[in-house]
Amino acid sequence: MVTLQQPFALERVASEIVDEWLTKHNATICSRRPSTIAGSAIYVALLKIKNDRETGSKLYSNYSGIKEVDVDMPLSKIALASCVAEGTLKNFVSEMTAQ
Questions:
Q1: How far is Cα 23 from Cα 58, in angstroms, rounded to an integer?
Q2: What is the rounded CA–CA span in Å between residue 10 and residue 39?
Q3: At the N or C end, where does the chain have fewer CB atoms within 10 A?
Q4: CA distances from 99 to 12, 24, 25, 59, 78 (A)
């Protein structure tokens, strides 16, 4: 079993991303496995936290443990931990981040 060994702050950001996505697209949720949604949300959360750091934004800075998040974790590790093909995660990340 592969674990991501990330602080709880990453889960909190990923949960917010899923909530936001569900609000916009709840009719299409039935076509995705929970592991696909979770893995994609984790990767999107990493991208958002990384962007937050690079731009100096303070969007997530008040989350406990956010500084310990490894934003350079490869998608392949997330795919392995969530038991979802990397290509499937890439496709769904594109859907989640589409405006």
A1: 24
A2: 12
A3: C
A4: 22, 10, 12, 19, 23
Which residue is it, tokens 């909190």?
Answer: 12
Q: Six-digit token pair at 87? A: 């290509």
Report pTM: 0.89
Tens place of pLDDT per residue across the chain (99 aa): 678 889 999 999 999 998 888 888 765 556 788 899 999 999 999 999 999 999 999 898 889 999 999 999 999 999 999 999 999 999 999 988 886
**Dihedral angle over CA of 65, 9, 96, 98, nearest 10:** -40
